[in-house]
Amino acid sequence: MDTLDIRPATPSDVELLLRLIHELALAEQFPFDVTANETDLRNSLFGPKPAAEAVIAECESEVAGFAVFYETFATTTARRGLHLDDLFIRPAFQGKGLGRKLFEHIGHIAHARECARFEWWSLRTNTKAIAFYDALGARPMEELLVFRTQGSFLANFTK
Length: 159
Known about the structure:
Blueprint: E1 4-8, H1 14-27, H2 38-46, E2 53-59, E3 62-74, E4 79-89, H3 98-112, E5 117-120, H4 127-135
Parallel strand pairs: 4-5
Antiparallel strand pairs: 1-2, 2-3, 3-4
């Protein structure tokens, strides 16, 4: 098994992270436009009020992938949770157990922070990822639906 080094992303990784985000969107045939840019990513990850955290996975000194996650809160547990927004291993590095190691790294962070939950979403079409999550013992939450408003619809809340 290849050696995987996982390190926190730094502001100097913003360009790399944006490239990886685009690679992920292409690999999973993400059905929406990727509108992220370096300025927004830098502000969201490293600004005065970071909205998320990122880690870079390196295998034999080559960038193998990344993960982005953020804390949540649930009133029913009165504790924080951890939401994994994206986890991506580049195709050349897949099938070597690196995705599992990166996933476990984020799980350890959730445990260390005493999170009540570690959650993530998956596109229904991403059958490879769903099989991976199933092998980890994770189960989809059939009782919940995800709803979203964005763009011009979000402006309706200012009225």
